[in-house]
Every structure is written in C-alpha cells, then in structure tokens.
Specification:
By secondary structure, the chain is α+β, with helices and mostly antiparallel strands. It is built from 24 helices and 20 strands. Helix content is 46%, strand content 12%. The strands form six sheets. A six-stranded mixed beta sheet has the order 13-14-17-18-19-20, covered by helices on one side.
C-alpha cells in the first residue's frame, strides 16, 4: 500500500471514530489512538534515536556502521571514532562532518546529523550508500569481468568522471579542496548515481594552515598491496599514487590544482585500470610522486592520453588551472574537437573534422574517386587515340590495350562505389538521412554479399525510423536479412505506424512517449530524430504546454539521467509567456547538440522566467534562443561571468538576474551590475 493510501485510511478511521463517540475524541481509547496516530506514538516512545545494525567499513581513524534512524524510519550510515581521542582528535572528526554538510550537491554525500554521545564520543550520520566503490569497479574491469565491462564502457566511465568533476568544481567554488580523491572515496549505486565521499582531509582555502604531526607508522613496513588505498594523515596527507607532488612535502602550497592532479590520477585509473604511480613501499611511491615518475599510459586515444598527462604534470603551473578547464577539454574530445592538451596541428584538426562529418566526408570522397577515375579514362582515351593516329600499324594492339585498361578502371570504379555504400551502412552517422537513404537504396541494386546487404537493410530501417517513416522502416527492420536485432525499434514502428502516414509527423507528446520507451538503449538515434522533428514541424503551431513533455524527455536524454525519477516541474504562466523552476536539479545541458545540428530544448517553451539555482549550469550558450526577462543563477558557477565576459548574458538581455555574488570576482560583479538589474543574495553591494 502506498503512503497516500495509508493517509486516506487513517483520516477515514479518525472521522469514523469521532462520529461513533459523538465527535468527542477524548472518549477514544488509548489503543484506538495508537492505531489512528502510529507515527506520533512511535516517536514519543523511542528514546534512542539510532539502533546499531552492522559494520560497513573501518579505517585508521573511524568506522562506519549501518544504523536505523527511528525518527525518520530509515537506514543511515553512522561514523564513530575507533578509539578514545582528546579534544583535538574529536574536533578534527567533527570538522569533517561540518565541512561536508556545508556542501549541498547531488554528487556529494549528504550529512544528516552530528553530535556527541552521553559519554562525550562524537558521531555523525550520512546517507547509507548502496552499490560499489569506483575502486571495486576498476578491479572488476581489470580482471575482465564481462558484466562490468558491459555496464561500464569507456563512455559510461567518462560520464561518471564528469559527475565527479562537477562535485569537485562545486566544492572549489566554495573555496574547499578535497585532498584525498581516490577510487575508494567515489561511490556509484545501481542507478548510476555518483557520490564523492570522505572529506576528512578537506581544507578551506585562505584559512589558517592545519597543524601537521609526525607520522605514527614506519612507511617502509607497510603492505604494498594496500598502499594505493591507504590515506596518510600526518606530516604527509593524502593517498600514495593519487596524491599530488606538493602533498609529499609539508608546508607546500596546495590549492584547486592539487585536486586537479588527483582527478588526473582517477582518470588514468579509469582508462587503464592501473594506478599511475606504483612501488614496493610508500617511501618509493612518494619518491616517484615527487619526481613525476608516472607509468606510461597505454590507451588507443592520443587525445585522452594528452588530457590525462596534462592533469598529472609535476609542476602546478603546467596543469589545468581549474576543474572547469579540465572538463572543457574532455567535452571537446567527446564532441570530436581538438583539445588544448594536444597542441593539434593541421592534419590532426583535419582528421577530427572528417571524423565529426564522417557520412558527408564519405560522399565527398566517393565523388572525388569517380571524378578522378573519369578523368583518367578521358585522358587514357585521348592518349590512345593519339597513338593510334601516329602508329596505324599498331592499331589492333593499341585497341586491345585500351579495352583492357577501360575494363580495369570500370571494375575499380565499381569497387569504390561498393566500398562507399558499405561504409555508410556500417557507420553510426545519421547526418543527412534522406541523402544516405538514396545512396543505400542504389547500393541494394549492386552485387553485394548477403552480409553487406543485411547491414544496408538495417541502416535503411534506422534512417527511415529517424524520419518517422515507420511504415517504410518496418520491412527493413524485420525480415530474413536483419533478424531480430532491432526488435524494439520494430515494435515502435508497428505501434506508431498505424497512427499516421509516413508523410506526417507525430505530435510532441507522442514523440516524448516514444523517446521514454526507447530510453537510453537508442541514445545515438534520438538526437537526430528530435532535430528532424523540430525542423520539419511548424513552429507557429507548437504550443508550449503540449511541447513540455517532449522537452522534459530531451532534458533527461542530453543530461544522461534516464535512471532518475521523472522531472516533476511544470510550466507556470508568467507575463506574456511562462515561468519554469529547474532549481536543485542536476541538469547541465539544455541543447540537443551534435556536429551537424544544435537545437534549443527550452526555446519553444516561450519562457520569460527561469530558475536554475543550485544546478551545475555554467555556459550561457546552452540557453541561446531563450528570450528571458528573469533568471535565477544562485549557487551556479557560470564560466562567462567568472572570466568577466558577459557576451552570453548580453544576448539574452534579461531584465532581472538573481545571483550569488560571492562566487565571482568583484570586478566581474561590478560589470554585471552596471549592465543589468542584479539581485545579489550574498548581500554584497
């Protein structure tokens, strides 16, 4: 029974009891009241808030136990000190809880409660996390576990890393650095949610340095098998193999770039399943860390290698200056552009351009081949005719040679066309689907192998599906040449093909329903399908309230949050349009973007007021085409404002901006307030 059903039952019971006792509830027995108001009685009778259940983990300073919180009636994780400590040790323990609780971010573990037991021992409680640590996932991938390899592809791992970076960047915006980022401190649950944990070594920048103590252990005697998961908390603070060089020497400057190094070490491990710096003892690893002696990174992407190694530079000045700069390079790599870490030359840029526009490049290459072959044939004919005219006696011999050469050229031309058709069929590119359909349909008339014709059939089905030609797609997706690989798409074609002719488009709400059904299993198809739908449908007839379900579906898709609860926000009339509250969501992207199109998801909603407070939003170009009069950016770290470049917001020209001025340089805020009506929630003038 759901909570709403319980509430209705209790209300009905109360009303019935009141009527039975002539509306005098004082006559109701204690047992009846206990049954009518179980939560109140439960809270009043339980004196102990927490009941210990089982130990979750144990470290050098504290252990984590699973307990039941009787007030909230839920399991939580409770951290307690392992042994008696003086006031200094207790203060340091509670400092971790206070610092973590100040960080309100969906990818940072939330703190629920903290306090002192009756005997004076400290504790704090936090969310009870289920799932695996990143360290465990990497170990399973290193052993070749097929289930983990399917679930955690390189693309999925980069998505996880992006969320880790979001959390660290948010902490940096609050002038807090972690100083102990490692796979064991990253938690991923079965729904893909990521949490950065254990902020015990965290430091507030510009605050007084913490006193550092001598080491309690002989580093040379530690087990090499646990070196790279052990946090050192003494004269040297950090985890060997993941700590930055400046952490190996007490008194060295430690800032945001120190966490950038640890993020680089995390990315190295996620790509190679190894720790970047290894040794037989802690002393050896620390010595290699100080010298910048990193194991070669053997992966198949030079771009990712360059990005990772730039973050792992020994000198602070040579690393990325911020987490945002780090993730910006990763975004360039994932969208097929050259990164700043590569220093890419002309041929690298050309290669990436061709890769981003693969289908178009193939078509151009085919026409160039045909043009070249035609030119060779023409030149050969002229040359042979000249030879025939000059040497009549060799006419028969030359004619035979001409015939043989032309036949070879014709065969070569046919082979190139066949190769083009097969490459288009094998590619994932969906650019210019109409043009690709024409080429592939002609390819079916050529003498190709059954395997290649199977690929052509499958690609034709997908291209027709993207164009919402469901009836034309069906015979390609389900016949003896394709089999059942695309069963889910075929099922959609059968269901939606009866709703419309192929010349028509689905309504916005129906397309949203279709996208939710396909979910993340067809993520490479949905963007092109949506872009075609928006381009082909009439803007003048689109109604914001009818389009809103489609916008919600696309926001989930571009932000890769399929496994989360559906967005429960709604459009509210405001001025001559609508207001939308997206505060405290994890949405960072608001455009459907690829190398061949960029479509504003929020544009058709006629938004005049938008609340993005406490979200990872950081780039104004994501809102291009949205005509706002008010925008709330409280708790957001917007890159353009931080750099003093206000061009993005000037194009939007909002009448009112609500913002947290403490996140940005004073000069940037002065420029912003000079141009716009700014409400600074930090109270700065």
């Amino acid at each position: 029974m759901m909570n709403d059903d319980y509430e209705k039952t209790y209300r009905s019971l109360t009303d019935d009891l009141a009527k039975f006792f002539n509306s005098s509830k004082t006559d109701i027995s204690e047992n009846d009241l206990r049954y009518a108001y179980p939560i109140q009685y439960d809270l009043s009778e339980k004196s102990d808030r927490y009941t210990e259940n089982e130990k979750i983990s144990e470290g050098g300073v504290k252990k984590i136990i699973r307990v039941i919180d009787h007030k909230a009636d839920r399991p939580v994780a409770k951290a307690v000190l392992l042994k008696e400590s003086g006031k200094e040790g207790i203060e340091e323990f509670l400092r971790e809880a206070r610092l973590t609780s100040s960080l309100q971010h969906p990818n940072i573990i939330p703190i629920y409660d903290m306090g002192l037991e009756e005997d004076g021992s400290p504790y704090f409680t936090m969310e009870h996390l289920t799932g695996d640590t990143l360290g465990y996932i990497i170990k399973k991938l290193a052993t070749g576990d097929e289930g983990y390899k399917r679930q955690y592809s390189r693309s999925a791992l980069l998505d996880i890393f992006s969320r880790i970076c979001d959390a660290v960047a948010y902490a940096h915006s609050r002038n807090i650095i972690h100083l102990d980022l490692k796979p064991e401190n990253i938690h991923i649950n079965s729904f893909g949610q990521v949490h950065v944990c254990d902020w015990g070594l965290g430091k507030i920048l510009k605050s007084d340095e913490e006193p550092e103590r001598g080491m309690d252990e002989d580093l040379s005697q530690l087990d090499p098998n646990i070196i790279n998961t052990m946090t050192l908390n003494g004269e040297i603070k950090g985890t060997p193999g993941f700590m930055a060089p400046e952490q190996t020497v007490s008194g060295q400057v430690k800032d945001q770039r120190t966490d950038v190094y640890s993020l680089g070490a995390l990315l190295y491990s996620m790509l190679s399943y190894k720790v970047p710096i290894q040794g037989k003892s802690v002393e050896e690893i620390i010595k290699k860390t100080t010298a910048g002696d990193i194991l070669p990174l053997n992966i198949d992407s030079e771009s990712l290698k360059a990005i990772t190694l730039k973050a792992l530079q020994k000198d602070l000045e040579n690393r990325y200056t911020s987490v945002e700069e780090f993730t910006a390079d990763l975004d360039k790599y994932r969208h097929g552009f050259a990164t700043s870490a590569e220093n890419a030359g002309f041929f690298t840029q050309l290669r990436l351009l061709i890769k981003r526009n693969k289908a178009t490049s193939l078509v151009i290459a085919a026409f160039m081949i045909i043009l070249t072959v035609s030119g060779i044939i023409a030149f050969k004919e002229i040359d042979d005719e000249r030879k025939v005219a000059l040497s009549a006696q060799n006419k028969a011999e030359q004619s035979l040679k001409l015939y043989l050469d032309e036949r070879k050229l014709t065969e070569a031309q046919g082979e190139n066309i066949d190769r083009l058709v097969v490459e288009i069929a094998e590619s994932d590119g969906l650019t210019n689907p109409g043009q690709q359909i024409k080429i592939l349909e002609q390819g079916l008339q050529r003498e190709l192998s059954d395997e290649n014709k199977k690929k052509i059939h499958e690609k034709l089905g997908i291209l027709h599906f993207v164009l919402q030609n469901f009836n034309q797609a069906k015979p390609y997706l389900y016949n003896d040449k394709v089999g059942k690989r695309q069963t889910k798409i075929y099922t959609v074609c059968k269901e939606y093909g009866v709703l419309k002719d192929d010349e028509q488009l689905l309504g916005d709400e129906k397309l949203a329903e279709l996208i939710h059904y396909l979910s993340h299993t067809q993520r490479y198809i949905i963007p092109t399908m949506y872009a075609h739908h928006m381009k082909a449908s009439k803007k003048s007839k689109r109604k914001p309230l009818e389009y809103w379900p489609l916008a919600k579906a696309m926001l989930m898709m571009v932000n890769n949050y399929w496994n989360t609860d559906p967005l429960d926000r709604e459009l509210v009339p405001f001025e001559d349009g609508y207001a939308l509250d997206l505060s405290n969501t994890r949405y960072r992207y608001y455009r459907c973007h690829s190398e061949s199109f960029s479509v504003s998801i929020l544009g058709p909603l006629k938004l005049r007021k938008l609340d993005l407070s406490n979200t990872p939003f950081f780039e104004f170009w994501q809102l291009a085409g949205v005509d706002l009069s008010e925008i709330n950016l409280t708790g957001c770290w917007v890159r353009e404002i931080h750099l003093g470049n206000l061009q993005g917001i000037e194009k939007m020209a909002p009448e009112k901006i609500t913002i947290d001025g403490e996140l940005y340089p004073i000069e940037s805020m002065k420029n912003l307030k000079r141009e716009f009506n700014v409400v600074d929630v930090s109270g700065n003038k």
